[in-house]
Amino acid sequence: MPALFDPITLRDVEIRNRLWVAPMCQYTILEWDGVPRDWHFVHLGAMAAGGAGLIVVEASAIVPDGRISPADTGIWNDTQATAWAKITAFLHAQGAKVGIQLAHAGRKASTWPDWGYGGKTGSMSDEEGGWETVAPSELPYPDHRTPRSLSRAEIHDLVESFAAAATRAVRAGFDVIELHGAHGYLIHQFLSPLANSRVDDYGGSVENRARFLLQIVAAVRSAIGENVPLFIRLSATDWVIGGWDEEETATVAGWAKLAGADLIDVSSGGITSGVPIQVGPGYQVPLATRLKSRADVLVSAVGAITTPIQADSIIRADQADAVMIAREFSRDPHFALRAAHELGVELSYWPPQYVRTHWPKEGAKQSAFNDG
Ligand SMILES: Cc1cc2nc3c(=O)[nH]c(=O)nc-3n(C[C@H](O)[C@H](O)[C@H](O)COP(=O)(O)O)c2cc1C
Question: N or C: which end of the chain has fewer CB within 10 A?
Fold first, then answer.
């Protein structure tokens, strides 16, 4: 069995280890133009210098109306792509590979950013700078505005926008494309019967609810060619009886693999609010492991994975092919270097600038570090 610091190759991309950074919205674009700036450079750059194998950058909107909030990043125009290119170049120079999560928030769009606006939360009205939201059906997310139901022509246009964003992302230097199909955002809204009451061929049976996702997978695969890995983040369950569940996830993951997807990034929840979820260390890992065996797909596990030994044992026990971590990497951008040290793994990619900061070998004199 491989271990945490063993490389993995997906299509033409070799990733130096299996300890990856999960996407994390920063809600930082004060100009509301979706263009990443210095914060992203430093935030993501530190994790690349800190030894992460793959860094998947935050949910980035494929069209302006697809943003969760106006402070989100985007990848719907070339100005944004040029700004991302500066970031991907630096991350590559540190030896990391870089992915981008392509997103549309659907009925969860047009909300106040997490911070920076006087604690305002929930939907943003038109007067405040918000916009009309769209979804498979006119079913609102609790305490959000009621979305307008998408026409078939609009669905077709969105599939094209995902493909155009993927093309732009590859030109900007991203090595991996991830589709955000989880957490109650647009793709998940189509998948889940709790948000999709359509009576055309995008609603009803699991084949119909999966149609939007599978059309996006096919369009993105054809846009990015055969060499670039394509991931999908899925909520494996809504944690609600009558909602999207693990069985449907396995069925659709199998179809997605046939349509050109390479790995499922397994998360859960988000389609509605107030659902009690038993959160504890590695609480979503069993979802990833069951999906891996049921659908014969590569998976990454995410959620409350915080220690090196925990991450390493998930890989060694073949519970997942990679581990994604969000909050622990935010708390400690050099988590991967620390993990390697704690697991006794010698890395060939310890940053030369930090060689003298490597934890001293037993018995080394502290004075040896005082030069310069
Ligand atoms: C600040 C923050 C922003 C997040 N943004 C995203 C996002 O853009 N896309 C996404 O799929 N998940 C997002 N998540 C969820 C994380 O990717 C991850 O699945 C979750 O935090 C559980 O992993 P952890 O326990 O390692 O933090 C975010 C989480 C945090 C803490």
Answer: C
